[in-house]
Amino acid sequence: VLSRPISVHSYDAAMGTIQFLYEVRGKGTEKLAALEPGDTLSLVGPSGNGFDVESALGKRVALVGGGIGTAPLYQLAKELNAGGTKADYFCGFRDEPYGVEKIATLCGKVQLATDSGRYGFHGFVTQLLNPEEYDLVLCCGPEPMMKAVAKLCEEKGVTCIVSLERKMACGIGACLGCTCKTTTGGKCVCKEGPVFDSKEVFGA
């Protein structure tokens, strides 16, 4: 089984621990789910870039996540909060949400949408977001959702930064398996991403 990318959910330098949040979708995540305390595994990384926390500090920031794409937003919220910025959090799930209470302690306003309507707003998370209320929108989730968020932000002249998901075989930009189209040509998501300005990747 080839290695697969997975975002860092939480990192604690003092404790020397890294947490990952994932869905069991195939053989790789099945193997992860079967691990027992004391088992070992190999990690390569971190690869590529991340959200630029320093440039977000002191701004009105919205975090927008969908499904398992909400996983890296917890660490992002922690770093923003440590820098004195409480972002608002918008999240969307198919049905039952997860991780919302945990990240809510680090954020200001929290808005939840579900496709089923069992929890929160019945509809899309994009229906809850008003980009004009923010200086910066940071987004991670399904690509159709991120494209919709990017479109809303572009209409209001608000900067939108997205984190793309691609299968990555090597993680160092050698195999070109994770190439994405950008306004300046093809780029490797593992090396030059996964975080891009939405105009660069969705305007391509």
For the secondary structure, the number of strands is 11
| Radius of gyration computed on alpha carbons | 17 Å
Distance between the termini: 32 Å
Strand-residue proportion: 15-25%
Shape call: globular
What is the share of helical residues?
A: 10-25%
What does this protein look like?
The protein is built from seven helices and eleven strands. With 204 residues, it is of the alpha/beta class. It has a seven-stranded mixed sheet with strand order 6-5-4-3-7-8-11. Strands 1-2 form a two-stranded antiparallel sheet. The model has no long low-confidence stretch (mean pLDDT 94). Helix 3 links the parallel strand 3 (61-66) and strand 4 (88-93).
Summed up:
With 204 residues, the protein is an alpha/beta fold. 24% of the residues lie in helices and 23% in strands.
Keywords, separated by commas or semicolons:
7 helices; two-stranded antiparallel ribbon; seven-stranded mixed β-sheet; 23% strand; alpha/beta; 204 residues; globular
What does the secondary structure layout of this molecule look like, with pairings?
Elements: E1 10-12, E2 17-19, H1 27-33, H2 53-56, E3 61-66, H3 73-82, E4 88-93, H4 100-104, E5 110-114, E6 121-122, E7 136-140, H5 143-156, E8 159-163, E9 179-182, E10 185-188, H6 189-192, E11 195-197, H7 198-202
